[in-house]
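Sequence only, no structure available. Ideas?
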Amino acid sequence: MHRFGFDNTYARELPGAYVAAKPAAAPEPRLLFANPALADELGLPPEVLQGPDAAALFAGNLLPEDAEPIAQAYAGHQFGGFSPQLGDGRALLLGELIDRAGQRRDIAFKGSGRTPFSRGGDGKAAVGPMLREVLIGEAMHALGIPTTRALAVAATGEPVRRETVLPGAVLTRVAASHLRVGSFQFFAARGDLDTLRRLANYTIARHDPGLIDSPDCYLGLLRAVAGRQAHLIAQWLNVGFIHGVMNTDNMALSGETIDYGPCAFMEAYDPATVFSSIDHAGRYAYGNQPAIARWNLARFAETLLPLMADAEDEPAIDRAVAAVTEVIDAFPAALAAALLGGQRRKLGILAATPANQAADDAADAALADDWLTLLHTQAVDFTLAWRHLASAAEGRPEPLRDLFPDRAALDAWLARLQQRWARDGGDGGLDGSARAEAMRRASPAVIARNHLVEEALAAATDGDMTPFDELLAALRSPWQEAALQTRYAAPAATEVTARYRTFCGT
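Reply:
I predicted one. Tokens follow.
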């Protein structure tokens, strides 16, 4: 029997925040995907993924002997409407372990069957959506964006019924934690301040231990979560990623991207881009993600107010409201600064000079905004435009100019960029080749193109894993210049992108 070395603090310290549950038995388990590099990072022995028990282990038939499978309780605002009880309806936290870097990590199943939170659902998952989690999670990891990751996917040998009958699968997901805004909303909505306080203290100890002795620890937690989200959303925007379902139960307090359901990468740049089949009003469109993140943080702040001041002490409540409002109101500027920092790297611009910080920030932001306007008005591919901009930096503008129907408008903007580059000359400046190389390290050649993801998942659903394996290899090396010469860098035809829709997979 395997032992993972679990130390299950959530189960031990937060009674009432979960229910114990067991995964459903899989009739014919078969391992579809294994992540040996991640297993090594976690300190797990190779035989966990390679041994004769691997399929049974990751399908849920054979649990590690130190696992304590639980379904976590949480609530959430879903498309703006509040559900006071959601919870893990098809997921189980198996346990926590300390990885080789000394970081605590959750190991959880997704698609492992019914729990007390399933609300009439079957708790199962299909092969395609679970392998989508692998592809997008590994792509985000390779791009340097905080993310949950897949350790394994096992086919169950059991059909699941959605619009059609599909082969079932279980994902094993690794996360810094599965603590969410919705975790706090669950207890705040019930007025259970004792458990809410224990949850907040647990979250601080796990993610922000420097706040433990702070008299303003709960306000500090809000600031820390807001800071992590500002950097995360800025990274999403700088690679054209659209989460698709930014409900409060999908905002991880660790600052990781979690739950790859109706997510997608934008191709032709348009801030109004929506792919999710259920986002009819565009609530979670690409350009709305900063405002939605702020909205979610405000809901988190509301749960912390009862911990910051007694409800009967009106002056204290007023002070707490003012303090959290200041954090929420500061969020857009923090995100904008993080976004501009990434855009400067992609534009090949050095940081602003301290003596002229405000003016440089405003000018550089305007330069970036005008670039995005060019991409939008000319329907230019977001990823390729940024990547080919690096070629322009070393004196080869032709690949970039070939993307634009109106080259005169591009040339006028490029002249402005070249003037900005000239200001970075002198000590510490970059020459053309060094600038281009730095820009390529900030703008990938390969993203998870939607048509290629769907092609790989369709083949895997039919039993052919080769397209999946080949796409995964390309996504794990997104920065290579040679990748531009492969099909993995090519956009889909416009008519394909125009009608592309993603689904949550539930």
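The chain has a mean pLDDT of 94.
Hope that gets you unstuck.
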